[in-house]
Design goal:
With 210 residues, the chain is mainly α. The chain has eleven helices and no strands. Helix 6 crosses helix 8. It is elongated and about 65 Å long.
Length: 210
């Protein structure tokens, strides 16, 4: 995967200039890139926490991806390439513009995906805590996940929900692999502690008085 290509396209602002591709390249983009639309939208929704903003972000991402598709190396990880453009576009639209996305209830985020991420953390729990985690409502898991610092949360999402490898996450987030591993460890730990606290406070997990 060429991260330089995705950097170039995601850092450019949207213009009215139309890019003409060959019919074959356009057909390949539709065939290969469009099937990831739902996953890219889920990632955009996780970032913006608002369906309208997420739709705008996805649209801008796919416009930029289409423009740069001639530069994409066929046979490399297209999903990671799209996520790289999504991430950079989000940074440009929200962080650089210092825009605050409108916050909707956290159940707008896919609860089953957050549950998957939380279950991944259960390896660091004692068996009683792991069982308690499985009983927690998905909305609680989503709320806890949203409370994890953004950089850590993104690493956990990309690894445990989307299934990216460390190297792919490093390219998507534009950080060293060691930073990814650190963020992933700290993100999982933060999520695990938040859920364990909730489980204890609400009777899902009994305090060990021994």
């Amino acid at each position: 995967m060429s991260t330089d290509d995705s950097d170039d396209v995601s850092d450019s602002s949207h213009s009215e200039t139309k890019v003409k591709h060959s019919p074959e390249l356009t057909a390949r983009f539709e065939r290969d890139a469009l099937p990831f639309l739902d996953q890219i939208y889920a990632g955009a929704l996780r970032m913006t926490r608002n369906p309208s903003d997420a739709q705008d972000l996805v649209q801008e991402t796919y416009i930029k991806a289409y423009r740069a598709f001639a530069q994409f190396q066929e046979g490399t990880n297209l999903k990671a390439w799209l996520y790289r453009i999504l991430t950079n576009t989000y940074i440009n639209l929200y962080r650089k513009a210092q825009r605050e996305p409108r916050v909707n209830p956290v159940d707008e985020i896919h609860d089953w995906q957050m549950a998957d991420a939380a279950r991944h953390t259960s390896g660091g729990l004692r068996s009683a805590e792991a069982e308690a985690l499985d009983l927690l409502p998905n909305t609680v898991i989503s709320e806890a996940f949203s409370a994890v610092p953004e950089d850590f949360r993104n690493a956990v999402y990309l690894a445990d929900v989307e299934g990216f490898a460390y190297k792919e996450i490093a390219e998507i987030m534009d950080v060293p692999v060691g930073t990814v591993m650190s963020r992933l460890h700290r993100g999982r730990k933060a999520l695990r502690e938040l859920l364990a606290d909730y489980a204890r406070e609400n009777g899902y997990l009994k305090e060990d008085k021994s």
